[in-house]
Amino acid sequence: NAAEKGGYEHFMLxxxxxxxxxxxxxxxxxxxxxRIEIEELGMDDxxxxxxxxxxxxxxxxxxxxxxxxxxIFEGMARIPVEVDLASxxxxxxxxxxxxxxxxxxxxxxxxxxxxxxxxxAKEKGCKVLGIVNVVGSSIAREADNxxxxxxxxxxxxxxxxAYSCQLIALYLLAMKFAHVRGTIxxxxxxxxxxxxxxxxxxxxxxxxxxxxxQKFANRYLxxxxxxxxxxxxxxxxxxxxxxxxKEVSYIHSEAYxxxxxxxxxxxxxxxxxxxxxxLTQENLYKKMISNIEEVKTRGAFVMAxxxxxxxxxxxxxxxVVYIPKTNKYFTNSLAIIPLQLFxxxxxxxxxxxxxxPRNLAKSVTVE
Length: 367
Ligand code: G6P
Description:
Blueprint: H1 11-17, H2 19-27, E1 31-32, E2 35-36, H3 45-50, E3 53-58, H4 60-77, E4 81-85, H5 86-89, E5 100-106, H6 112-123, E6 127-132, H7 138-142, E7 145-148, H8 161-180, H9 186-207, H10 210-217, E8 225-230, H11 233-249, E9 252-257, E10 274-279, H12 285-297, E11 301-307, H13 313-316, E12 319-323, H14 331-349
Parallel strand pairs: 3-4, 3-5, 5-6, 6-7, 8-9, 8-10, 10-11, 11-12
Antiparallel strand pairs: 1-2
Helix pairs in contact: 2-8, 2-9, 4-8, 4-11, 9-14, 10-14, 11-14
The structure holds 6-O-phosphono-alpha-D-glucopyranose.
The site of 6-O-phosphono-alpha-D-glucopyranose (G6P) has 15 residues, from helix 4.
EC number: 2.6.1.16
Domain SIS: 44-183, 216-357
Protein name: Glutamine--fructose-6-phosphate aminotransferase [isomerizing]
């Protein structure tokens, strides 16, 4: 009912607005005296140094946070990471050698495939860490250790705040591992902690830009197909942006690694096709501008999401959304906000049942 929605039209919008607090609740208890402390990890420094590989298993949006964190664990902590869909992992007899840490990410803690993957990993002798939102859920109980995301109850089928909290938990883990293993300096850690603390206010600011995004979304209510492109972390953001849009609006959309465009997707670009381009990574910036030009030549209309200060993107793209400055590893937390709003407003404009899209369940407890 309306009271439960706290004055918002839908749970999805309410939960998007709860993100600043949820994010802060997830990092605050784990930052002490300028250090990352994750007691529930159950690993001392020696155990953290002994990790040779991380295998992340999840479904849906949780899989996307796993994809984002692959770039972060590898870039920041120099640990090789494999990310697998739980439904694939459980049937491929995965090779889990000594020193492999398995991380299972799940909002509900009840997803059947993720739970089965957890059991498979334990059977093979691996230590399993759960990143879970629902306290006392099956995955939380069966994992060797559990790190909770403090998003609070999430009602809308399309996840927003739980997704954002999973990212934060993964940032904290990567920072902890990187610091212990000596791949980041004290100074870099201190800077990252400062940037983490700024995220809630920055997310709030982006949410307050909702009218502009709504206006833009209203132009695409009849779109047949929408594309999301990015490289590196921005590719991972593209996947989540695309899923948000299609699951609630029923408009077909696809996320593509921008460098792969010319190997297929570009043939689908027609006059007026909307392409959302993500450019938050400085080292990939020029490459992304060329990808924007490629699709523009084929008639695409390009919405770009980029860092503040890059006003030159306006020369290449048709419509630009800026995100405030943050650490290069944390941009997903900001860039996802306009994409969540976009998906939401396209669905609202089309009269879709935003909180309960057809055929989808909040928690998939059957195979
Ligand atoms: C369902 C939900 C998705 C979610 C996925 C994994 O498909 O609709 O939003 O990402 O399950 O759920 P979990 O609870 O394991 O994170």
